[in-house]
Amino acid sequence: MSKTLQGLNPPVHTQQRRSLGNIFDRSTLAGLQPFVRQNVEELLDRLSDQLRATGEADFATLVGEELPVATISHWLKLPQADHALLRELTHGQAYAQELLPSASQLAQANAAAEGLREYFTAVVADRRRSLGDDALSRWIRTWDELEPDREVADETLYHLVMFIVIASLETTSTLLSNMVWLLDQNPQQRSWLLAHPEATPNAVEEVLRYDPPIHLTTRVATEDTELAGTRIERDEVVHVMIAAANHDPSQFAEPDTFDIGRTAAHLGFGGGIHFCIGAMLARLEATELLQSLNRRFPTLRVTTPPEWEPRMAFRRLLALHVAEH
């Protein structure tokens, strides 16, 4: 992961991020919105069918895990048949970014990393043989101009496309299910939101502040420095506690209160040069889903507390059972 965007520093980071362009600008999002909206309706149809058949359904599995992989695959033109594999590999590699991963977790992360390399190396090679008008084809053309060594160019492309896919899957799936859980635990606010659907984007932002998909990220100091009175030596590891910063009382009034009426900025997407490259896509997916969910299932309730995977950095909601009451 040190060779992906999140682990790079300028000038390498600057070159790679610029090579992608403004990938989720207004035009791109406008083009993706009809697909996202249609896919949301289809997934909620499945949820409805399951609720009618058994009275209960796992929202995380049926909806939360499905919308992000369908969206990013549609945009990059990856086969639908590969969705399950991409989810499995993405979940596995996340262990490498944990605070204190066990030996078995690191082994799983290594196996997933090998799988991701094999998969996305093949994707880049296959797309190179039949360039189109999709995002990956454009990146291939860009890197053929930037880097005369084809092998180096394709290695860079592998890291870029792999990072974009895994970052969008693991984080957005958690966001989608977590917002259902948090609103369920705050019924008065959900009732207000049902009557004021125009506030849905703000509700999504509060979910990102209150319990972001990524609780911490790790950095290595490139030089001796001092931060808030603490001496940090070169090459020391620094864990940046994003979730804690989002509950800083000097920045947020009553920070431990879930309040969809907030307008304050948060660090759910990071900041600076490492601000999440897919932030606007995640917001689009979450907003479209929550609007449709509230319209179609106004009485939806969580039946049992969510099942979380025991992670500290990259949160993953394994199961969220819901029913209509």
In short:
The chain is mostly helical and 325 residues long. The protein has helices spanning 12-20, 26-54, 59-64, 66-76, 83-93, 103-129, 135-146, 150-184, 187-195, 200-210, 242-245, 279-296; strands spanning 57-58, 216-220, 225-227, 230-232, 237-241, 300-302, 307-308, 317-319, 321-324.
Short descriptors:
Cyt_P450_sf; 12 helices; Cyt_P450_B; mainly alpha
Strand order of the largest sheet: 1-9-6
Assembly status = single chain
> Which sequence of SSEs, written as H and E, runs from N to C?
HHEHHHHHHHHEEEEHHEEEE
How many helices in DSSP terms? 12
Total strand count, please?
9
Helix content: 55-70%
Q: How many strands, what sense, and barrel or not for the largest sheet?
A: 3 strands, antiparallel
Terminal Cα separation, in Å?
Answer: 44 Å
Helix and strand content put the structural class at: mainly alpha
Strand content: 5-15%
* Rg computed from alpha carbons, rounded to a whole number of angstroms: 20 Å
Q: Overall mean pLDDT score?
A: 94
Spans of 5+ residues with little confidence (pLDDT < 50)? Answer: none
Question: Tell me, what's the shape?
Answer: globular
